């Protein structure tokens, strides 16, 4: 990202393109819309600060997700502020994240997965990342990323089957 004479307008295009995705990603990790917004704001603040310190550095969108992930986990460690899915109402989900309401059952089932498996599924299906990109982001091997995805899919399928038997 070398923005030279653009002033500060360049940050607006990054926020417009990646802001919602970063916020939703943080929401997947934290399950709290206010904290997710804080994570997004902090992520873009760090992007801006990094650009000021290193104006010739080329920044990639994956960097944003790494910063968001680390900051979200810092919040979890220091504040332990999470909201269980059963405390989030359908109206809150629909209002804060349009189009998600139909996936409330899926979100309930995802809650039963390990956080890292849930994150792998989200990166793979929502961001359309390859297993190589997921592996780099999580600092694991591509084989480990594929294994996590496979286990997460199997577990999710098992949960879906059990839930459909109950309905």
UniProtKB/TrEMBL annotation:
PANTHER family linked: RNA POLYMERASE ECF-TYPE SIGMA FACTO, RNA POLYMERASE SIGMA FACTOR HI_1459-RELATED
Protein name, per record: RNA polymerase subunit sigma-24
Organism: Sulfobacillus benefaciens
Molecular functions (GO terms): DNA binding; sigma factor activity
A single BP term in Gene Ontology: DNA-templated transcription initiation
Lineage of source species: Bacteria, Bacillati, Bacillota, Clostridia, Eubacteriales
Stored Pfam families: Sigma70_r2 (PF04542), Sigma70_r4_2 (PF08281)
Transmembrane segments: none
Annotated RNA polymerase sigma-70 region domain residues: 15-81
Entry annotated with the keyword Transcription regulation: yes
């Amino acid at each position: 990202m070398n923005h030279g004479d653009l002033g500060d307008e360049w940050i607006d295009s990054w926020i417009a393109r990646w802001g919602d995705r970063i916020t939703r990603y943080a929401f997947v990790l934290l399950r709290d819309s206010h904290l997710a917004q804080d994570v997004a704001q902090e992520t873009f603040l760090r992007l801006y600060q990094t650009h000021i310190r290193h104006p010739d550095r080329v920044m990639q969108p994956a960097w944003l997700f790494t910063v968001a992930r680390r900051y979200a986990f810092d919040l979890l460690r220091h504040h332990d502020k999470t909201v269980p899915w059963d405390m989030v109402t359908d109206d809150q989900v629909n209002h804060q994240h349009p189009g998600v309401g139909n996936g409330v059952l899926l979100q309930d089932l995802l809650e039963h997965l390990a956080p890292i498996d849930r994150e792998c599924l989200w990166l793979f299906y929502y961001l359309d990342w390859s297993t190589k990109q997921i592996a780099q982001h999580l600092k694991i091997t591509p084989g480990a990323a594929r294994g996590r995805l496979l286990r997460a899919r199997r577990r999710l399928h098992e949960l879906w089957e059990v839930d459909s038997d109950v309905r």
